[in-house]
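Re: weekly structure request thread

Next one in the queue (244 aa):
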Amino acid sequence: MPNINNRKTGSGQEITFDNTDNLAKELSDRIAKKLSTAIESKGKASLLVSGGSTPALLFEKLCQQDIDWKNVWISLVDERWVIACHEASNERLVRSHLLQSKAAAANFIPMVNHAYTAEAGAKVCSEMLSQIPEPFDMVLLGMGNDGHTASLFPCSEELGLGLDLNSELRCLAVNPKTAPHARMSYTLPALLNSQQIILMLTGKAKWQVYQEAGSDDSKEAEKQMPIRAFLNQSNTKLDVYWAS
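Done, posted below.
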């Protein structure tokens, strides 16, 4: 059974597990229930996910769920500006682990287009993403050891615009100085336009980073660890799922 505690900042809970398999199973069931409820009430559902290695097991369990997948829209919270077959592509991960089995019928909207640079492709990307039903029913975030989430990096010159709650941008090009590849990322206000945000973490190192992020709720501190902008807000419920 998971251990559940209220979070110290913002709104939501901390839900912790003894192992990643239990976390993936529990979260898969929760996402499936959320999407199915949305389809029952409005005929469609939307899910934004993160890339990286952390959610792979979750994706493998989620794609087996009995959901009316043809009425589910899926996209990413961020993407490296590489072709879909590139080993660094988040789309490649989603297609190989999530858009399989029953979930193969889902509607997937990629972030990368034919533009040579992320800056040149930002407008088309935003137009493509506008197909996804909003507000999003579920957003799945991850977090780096530097406190970045999506591709909102503390080292990037674009961070201020990405965290601007008054911005009307859905997505923006990001060029991190401490990570490879140019990126496309959803902005903070666009991601907060959701019914539920899940921050999924595994390992003790990530838990320590999360604890550090939760220790300062000042606006200035958000520039040092952008995940704080999500943890400190109370407009959209954010639950943390962690396994050691």
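The radius of gyration is 17 Å. The CA atoms of residues 7 and 50 lie 22 Å apart.
Next request, please.
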